[in-house]
Fold these 2 entries.
Entry 1:
Amino acid sequence: MRQGALRFNSVRALAHILLGACAIAWCILWLAPPMTDVGHWIAMLPAMMAPLILPLARKAIARVYARERGPVLQGFLFGYVLCWLLAGVPAILIIKLLHALAGPFAAPLAFALAALWHVTPARARAAKMSHGLARLPRGDAADATRLGLRQGMLCIQSCGPLMVASMTTHSLAPMLLVTLLLLAESNSHRLPPAQRIATLILVIGLLPAPHPHKMEHAYDPPHQTDRSFAQQKSAVSPGA
Amino acid sequence: MRIRKSVYALDTDDDTLEWYRQAVDAMSQKPVEDPTSWYYMGAVHGNPFNGVPTGAQGFWDQCAHASWFFLSWHRMYLGAFEAMVAKTVEELGGPSEWALPYWNYSQDPTEEPRARFLPEAFRDSTLADGTPNALFSQRFAVTNGDFGLDDSIVTLDALNADSFSDPNDPTENFGGLPPALNPFSNSSGRLEMRPHNVIHTSIGGFMQDPRTAAFDPIFWLHHCNIDRLWEVWRRADPTHVEPVEPVWRTGTQFAMHDADGLPFTFNSEQTLDTTKVLHGYVYDEPPATPPLPPTIITPEAVFVSDPELVGRSSEPVRLVDAVTEATVELAAPTESSFLQASLPDPVKVMLVLENVRAAGVAADFRVLVSRASSDETVEAGVLATFGIARASDPDRDHGGTGLTQAYDITFAAETLGLKQEAAPMISVRFERITRPTEALTEAPAAMAEILGATSSPQDAEVEVERIALYFR
């Protein structure tokens, strides 16, 4: 068999892996009981970011030798995921701060701040840069990790505030809409007008549709999560 | 129905260009905020001014280069401009069916000896009576309109492209590649690369920079020819079809103004039938039959394989001298054997210049390849740098990735030693293309503000992030 055919399969395999991880993450977010903030952040990453990183990961492995694709893919994804995991620390602190300051208005406030970020030139630049590979991979895992970190940084600058806003709701509908918005933006010929995107973000922030199992958690201080869920569970199914 | 004719096929007493001159002159008198003014329409392509007038947001600075919207966007842009000029011509007392002529610089010189020369009406800064010629612009200061357009510049090789947009083969795209999900998405389509880009850079001056190009009246005749070539390609073969993806056909909207200055939106699908593009138009000649497409690729290869990297340069290559040499090392023996095993099959060898960047207007380069330690070189193509500064700017659509240009060099596989067992490296030679002159003519006085904007480096250093050899 020709290696060209193998390579094509490797691209398809990459798509299966990343989109599979994305689908599983959405199932977990939908079906699993309310999670801690850390768990929620970890589940959100593949759910929202895997479809966005797919074209970049494909570009990275398309531009190295066949024998380098494995290490490059691993390094690239490791760097990218590491970046986002580390970003979870300030993200969670910001979410706690928003809940403490704004209570039930934490989510609309977070979306309003994200909308504000989206009309800045800095965000526009980060978005444009994050839609392409910052540079070509050299072919080894260490370099690919650095490239993944760089790409992760750009992605955080571009999408981070929206990720934080989505998590503030702990609700699937805004997360799904934000994911679709980011996907549409990354596939567009050029960035849509910033004001239009900002308006959409504000609208998403006002959507009163949190997940029924997680509604209380969304606006409760995080330490009340377990109790709220236990109360909710006993109220719904007392015999359980 | 308007009929667009070759500028050199116009009768000697035909007044199409005279009406064009008068209309450009009249449109230049309108304020820049007027959507039907010469300056507004020029800025729709690229904005050389400081800032954007109220109401022009979303209309200015739109040109779609190194993108699969290049042809469709420019078709409607031409249509809107033609409608505005035609309306102005009518208001000036001219004919009602004025149509843009096209400059067919690729016409066989034995058929039309003037084909490669700038039409006379555009050459002089003043008219016979000493008044300014509205068709004049800042260009290279050549004599008799001879910009040195040789065979390699006016080639119609692009018509050989099998596909409008083949995501698996960056050399086989007539019209460009989609922005995402593609390893080579910052590549130009073949028609855009040549002759489009190299005509821009060969004329020089305003034409050399996308921000000012549409302020040169010859821009419109050049693009009219490119638009005609799209029509030639799409009518040459029933398999020559535009992308079926909804994001190309209907999913991406652009906005412009019509002849009355009223805004409208359009998508690429609405540009496919020229008789329905605004007022509608056709070209005067029956579409030519292009050369037969290459037959070295099997359908299986098209659908099964993506390009396979088989060699790359180790460091970025800076093109600072008249001649720059670089080497591309081929992969380790495992991939070399792949080369050896696969070349007898219908496969392709591609030389790809990846992420080519520059900070300003740059020269073009002839790209030659040879087997290392061999004097026998073959020409891969021309590295055309039109629009490179924009593509290298992180604040613009390409996010600073620069341009990627791919060349099909399968024909040179034997010469390069790629069919032999050992071909450790190949040499790539960049020769700066010299112009008949690089001095520029004076810009028309009315263009002073625009001239100020063209002060970006005129001979910017070009850097090729990597030279790569791909195989499929």
Entry 2:
Amino acid sequence: MNKFTSKILSAAVALSVGLGFTAAVVKEAAAWEPKKPVEFVIMAGKGGGADRLARFIQGIIEKNGLASKPFVPINKGGGSGAEALRYLKDRAGDPHVIMATLNSYYTTPLRNPDIGVDIAEFTPITRLAEDTFQLWVTTDSGITTVDEYVAAVKAAGPGNWKMGGTGKGQEDSLVTAMLEKKFDIKVTYVPYKGGGTVAKELIGKHIDSTVNNPSEQAGFWEAGKSRPLASFTPKGKLQGRFGDIPTFEELGYGSDMVYYMQRSVIAPAGIGEDVQAYYVGVFEKVYKSAEWQEYLTNKGLIPGWLTGSALTEYFLTEREAHRQMLQAAGEID
Amino acid sequence: MEVLGLLINGFVIAFEPLNLALIVAGVVVGLFIGAMPGLGSVNGVAILLPMTFLVPPTSAVIFLAAIYYGAMYGGAISSIMLGIPGASTAVATTFDGRPLALKGQADKALVAAAAASFVGGSISVVLFTLFALPLAGVALAFGPPETFALMVLAFATFIGLGGDDIPKTLFSILIGLVFSTVGLDIISGEPRLIFGGLTGFYHGINFLVLAIGIYGIGEMLWTIEISQGEVLMSKATVSFRRILSNLRDLKGNIKTMIMGSFLGYFVGILPAAGATPGSLMAYGVAKTMSKNPETYGKGNIDGVVAPEAANNAASTGSMLPMLTLGIPGSPTTAILLGGMVIWGLEPGPLVFTDHPDFVWGLIASLYAANLFALLINIGFIPAFIWVLKMPFTILAPIIFVLCVVGGYVPTQSMHDVWLMLIFGVVGYFMRKLDYPMAPMVLAIVLGPLAEPAMRQSLIGSQGDVMIFFERPISGTIMVIALFLIVLPLIKNMRKRRKRNAANGPN
């Protein structure tokens, strides 16, 4: 081998090693990206608040190109979200699954220890907002105030007033329990698979009242078919047209008639920190998008970005609060 | 005729070059997605949703509607050709489509499916145009008692006048209902029948897994047995003239097509029902109405026509609750709904007045998609027949692979693949012992709809069963259902008396 060729050879070797090294560094520095479509599990049925929200988020992600692979919503609403929770547990370590949560995230594992889900194990991604609740009746009922409502329920006789809501032990039933306790009334609670169906059942007069989220009744309210009587929020928290609905506090029923629904995103246990960081990044862009900010105001949600350990802490505090609520309602021991 | 003016305006929109191109592309894509077992219109619409952000909202929904329609046509193809339901909506098409193909009449079945789909699509679009708003009221009037009554009626059509052995049919329905309760209870959230905590059962039994197992695998095993090692080849042939004569032969099936279309459309507009229950119910009703119900399941062309007309009609129908109530009538429309929100269109009672261009453009494009789906589908029939001409020794492994893929795709878990194989073996034995399998499939589809409806009704009435009979709509449906169940018993008794009378003098 002459000198020249060996020089070229060593240069080539050096170059290729160098390239290889750079490639390795680049590979290491490159953030995690999904390699296939991401399953976006919704722990509620189609057409409800959680479902609409998840599909809206999917739209924002796709419209603005926030992710390299599509986020595909999948409804697993069975058993008050137990189906979805169990699904996430079984997918531990899978980086291609995330889930949009609601408050059944706390209540369902508490009520069904059998499903073997501990939410402390899941990986928190972000809390995007807190959804609110209002008391709704049909316009045809002629009821315009909370006082008239209470009188109507009492006149119907115990158990004859039908309140529709999502699964037993879920948000709607807790809010209903609050109402019953506050006003000393007794209603029959009829569970449905999703808030959208509940809204439609009210308009079809199969039930007498609901505690729907704003987004679920908005269309019927606009069309003059349903009417909100009062909002389960603190004074001045809601903006836009939903801000015009009186709160229970403003109506003089005390400040304890407040209940929120968290709108968060979580991932299974055992995913890498890089994967977690990736999803937080995607949702941060979602949160800052004009579409999201507009949605919050239009649909009566309260903004609430929260992530990391603060979110875990929030989840655990809320779980404790719900444990007490369920105990008070006699749902669990 | 304000509606007519709006519709003509809609046609102008649908026939814009971009929209027309999207219709054709959507139909072709949908046809193939629908024909692939395990992939249905849901997957097609979900995968292609992002693409629609590149075009205006009206064009976007036209594209997705064309995929939806194309998939409804396509689902029938693998049902008929391979005996594997191409999509959940095409399960009922397998019942008679596959036997027809085995008899060498695949072309007849494919033409019938295409023509019935076209009729179903056309009738439903006309109904949609004329009665969209009043029918939204019907969807509202359907509460839990009405839904339950409708489900009872569906079961009744499978028991009554069936021509099959009634105890065997009942057994089949009941076992299907048991399967449908596996998983988490909808009302209380408690797990039920999970075989000591097998995690795969928490999600319930996906009915497509059952259908692919019973029909795909079971059918394959059966064919292997009857061929006895001989190389079996389908005798299918096809020519343009045959297609035309097949079309002419369908004159006698028009009544069934019209029945299927109306029924499918009606079931489609009920929120939560959708095209799968619609097509199964149409099959049951067609069999009930038929003069010779015993030929069903053995290759009766009406058994292909009814569900195909119904599933296309239902797919149009399910647009109605989505647009007017914001509640999707089927999984696919749920995805369309998500699309509408991001396009800035708020579904709800006001969508017809706030966005007439969108609504009527969509309706007109349904007409157009329907026509193109028919033409494209018929154009492809020779290619499909060519596949059928392969010897069964080659076809069987292909069917097996497609079944496994189809069982895996919906939930992506091996649990479902094993379950599907077990159902396949069970299906083979059921067939050997002459148990009807269609009622079992019906039960596993309708069970999850019937059970919560019944429990919601009874919670509302505080346990009073009369709620199903007191309300005018549910009461009427219940009485018809009970009549259909009792009728065969009376018929049987009469037959026996006649026989006794005939035997008496001797």
